[in-house]
Each structure stands twice: as structure tokens, then as C-alpha cells.
From TrEMBL:
The lineage of its organism: Eukaryota, Fungi, Dikarya, Ascomycota, Pezizomycotina. This is Proteasome component (PCI) domain-containing protein. Keywords: Coiled coil, Proteasome, Signalosome. Belongs to the CSN7/EIF3M family. CSN7 subfamily. PROSITE patterns: PCI.
Length: 296
């Protein structure tokens, strides 16, 4: 929208250029066009025959160079020219600084107050902030001031600067490099997509094979259910036999234990009886000795 507005603002000056037959009239047209607050694109005016004819006039050649700076130059380039270019009025100074800010904002890594003040020849941070605010209201930039960090944060730029001569080939090379990176990325993505699809197809085949085996087993059980029941019974009897054997084994061990216990008890009883018999069978002389002791 801003670009359309700027082109519409330039239309009256393009119409006037057709009647600017003299070098002085063409130079005056340059001054008026660059002072207008709504004109930011100057390539069409710069390419008109009447303006290009200024290159043949030594007195008005500086006006042609000034229009070139407004088209694709910066305020630093204007200052570097010294006294060779016409003196700027206040409106031209503000516009050239705004356009220079638009160019400098392309490098967003160096938008500190100090760097911008130096490039735009501004005396203070307040003057820089006023310039940025005017550029925002003019639709040139979408930016935020950060006084704490002393920097300008630019979010977006308007396409309101003409391309400098020779700027197209580098842009074409950059676009070709970007296109190559995009193609490489797309090829890699397509390869990954193919691998994912192949893996999904393998999983689907495995699942289909498992489903087929399961269905086959189910059909076999349905066709011959007695065989399945017989297998279950065989398994059940086998388990009972083992438990019976185990029970019998425990019983026989208990019986053996009881037998051993009763045998040992009988042996102990016989030993006690023998001792009692030994006590009863004492010597007669010992009996006599006991009797004499009792008399005493």
C-alpha cells in the first residue's frame, strides 16, 4: 500500500517532466520532487530523458547526482560529496535521512543509537528517536525504540527504496543459492517420506501376516474342537498323577519315620529293663554288710 501511495505521489512530477524542456526547469523539478513528503521512489523520474539531459549541463549536473542519491544513496554519501551537490532544505534533509534509515535497517545487527547517529549525522539520541518516529508514521519501517539498550528494534521494512545500479546480479545469485538450498531440502524431505512409507508398508504386511496366522489357528480349532479338548484333558491327568505321586512319596516317608521312631523306643525300653535286672541281682555278702550297719 505504501508503495502504491509513493508511486501515485510521483505521477504529477512525471507529467511535469514532459514539459521541462530546459535544464533549469528539470533541476527545479528535482528539487520539488525530493521535497515532497510523500515521494520515496524516484527511478521513473530519474530515467526520463529530460532529467538525464542534465548530465550534459555542467551547471545542473549536481541536481542529477542529488536525485541519484535520493533514489538509492544515503545521507553519508551526500556528506561525502562535500560542496559539489546542492544544499538541502529541511524537507529534503528529513527525507534523505528517512531513506538512509530504511537502507541501514537492512543490517539489523548494527542498529544502536551510536551507529545510527554517526551514519545519519544526528546530534543526540533524542533527534534519532524523533527521526525513527517520523519514519514509522511515514510507513517506512515498523520499529520499536529501546532507550534502555540504546538500540532500535526493526520488525519490518517497506519496499520504498530503488535498486542501485548493479544490485540486480547479486540478488539473482542470492536467489539462486536460496533456490538450491530449497531443492536440497525438498529432496531430503522426499527421501525421508519414502523411508517412512516403506516402513509403514512393512508394518502393514507384518500385521496382515499375523492376522492370517491367527485366523488360520481359529479355523483349525473350530473345525476340530475335540482335539483341543483332548489335549486339555491329557494335560489335566498328567498334573493329577504328579500330585498323587508326590502325596504317596510323603506318606511313605512318614511311615518310614514312624517305623524308625518305634524301633528306637523299643530299644530304649529294653535297655532300662536290663539295668533294672542288674540292680536286682546283687551279691549276698553286700546284703549282710548292710544288715550289720543297720544293727549298729
Amino acid at each position: 500500500m505504501e508503495q502504491t501511495k509513493a508511486l501515485n505521489a510521483l505521477e504529477p512530477f512525471l507529467a511535469l517532466s514532459k514539459s521541462a524542456t530546459s535544464s533549469r526547469a528539470a533541476a527545479d523539478l528535482v528539487t520539488r520532487a525530493t521535497s515532497n513528503p510523500n515521494t520515496f521512489l524516484f527511478t521513473e523520474l530519474l530515467e526520463t530523458p529530460q532529467i538525464q539531459a542534465l548530465s550534459q549541463s555542467p551547471d545542473f549536473l549536481p541536481h542529477l547526482r542529488l536525485l541519484e542519491i535520493f533514489s538509492h544513496g544515503t545521507y553519508t554519501a551526500y556528506l561525502a560529496s562535500g560542496q559539489q551537490l546542492p544544499q538541502l532544505n529541511d524537507a529534503q534533509t528529513l527525507k534523505l535521512r528517512q531513506l538512509s534509515l530504511l537502507t541501514l535497517a537492512r543490517d539489523r545487527s548494527n542498529l544502536t543509537y551510536a551507529a545510527l547517529q554517526s551514519a545519519l549525522d544526528l546530534p543526540s539520541a533524542r533527534a534519532l528517536e524523533d527521526l525513527v518516529i517520523s519514519a514509522i508514521y511515514a510507513g517506512l519501517v515498523d520499529a520499536t525504540l529501546d532507550p534502555h539498550r540504546q538500540a532500535v528494534q526493526v520488525n519490518s521494512l517497506a519496499a520504498l527504496r530503488d535498486l542501485a545500479p548493479g544490485a540486480v546480479p547479486p540478488m539473482i545469485r542470492a536467489l539462486h543459492a536460496w533456490s538450491s538450498r530449497c531443492e536440497s531440502t525438498l529432496e531430503e524431505l522426499e527421501s525421508q517420506i519414502a523411508d517412512i512409507r516403506e516402513a509403514a508398508a512393512r508394518r502393514q504386511d507384518d500385521k496382515a501376516e499375523q492376522d492370517a496366522r491367527l485366523a488360520k489357528l481359529v479355523d483349525e480349532v473350530r473345525k476340530d474342537p475335540e482335539a483341543g479338548a483332548g489335549r486339555k484333558l491329557a494335560v489335566g491327568h498328567g498334573g493329577g498323577g504328579e500330585r498323587g505321586t508326590s502325596f504317596l512319596g510323603h506318606t511313605s516317608r512318614a511311615q518310614r519315620y514312624n517305623k524308625r521312631g518305634s524301633t528306637s523306643m523299643m530299644d530304649n525300653t529294653e535297655e532300662l529293663d536290663d539295668e533294672a535286672m542288674d540292680v536286682d541281682e546283687e551279691d549276698p555278702e553286700q546284703e549282710k554288710k548292710r544288715a550289720s550297719r543297720r544293727k549298729l
